[in-house]
Design goal:
126 residues; 8% strand; three-stranded antiparallel sheet; Arc Repressor Mutant, subunit A; 2 domains; elongated; single chain; mainly alpha
């Protein structure tokens, strides 16, 4: 089964679950509500939808249901990057990398790390 692509709102909830671990709706609502109005039912509905999609799992063994991320951050990131590459860069990861470098979004340190990664993949040394 493939990992479903999370929406922006779902990604916000997943980020909290990845950093905090298992959390109740109340916990998640409190964190998301900081600095803005957000109905509790909105968070609950999102979690119910995410449960159906397989993004989170719900432990209903206690009075307050506890939600846990069902997908690893790396899995979600891969789905999002693949979608971006397909939609914005016609399936070319190279075009994405060129765009990032040309826009100045890659530091000299980033470039050094990329060179080392490329060398390692080729079996050479940096």
């Amino acid at each position: 089964m493939s990992t479903p692509k999370p929406t922006d709102g779902e990604l916000s909830l997943l980020r909290i679950l990845w950093s905090r671990g298992p959390s109740t709706v109340k916990d998640l609502h409190r964190i998301l509500q900081e600095g803005r109005e957000l109905p509790y039912t909105t968070v609950l509905s999102a979690l119910q939808s995410m449960t159906e999609k397989g993004l989170v799992v719900r432990d209903a063994s206690t009075r307050q249901h506890v939600y846990t991320a069902a997908v690893a951050e790396s899995q979600a990131r891969a789905v999002l990057v693949d979608d971006l590459v397909d939609k914005a860069f016609r399936g070319s990861a190279m075009e994405l990398m060129v765009h990032a470098v040309e826009q100045g979004q890659v530091s000299a340190e980033d470039l050094d790390q990329l060179r080392a990664l490329i060398a390692a993949k080729k079996g050479g040394r940096p």
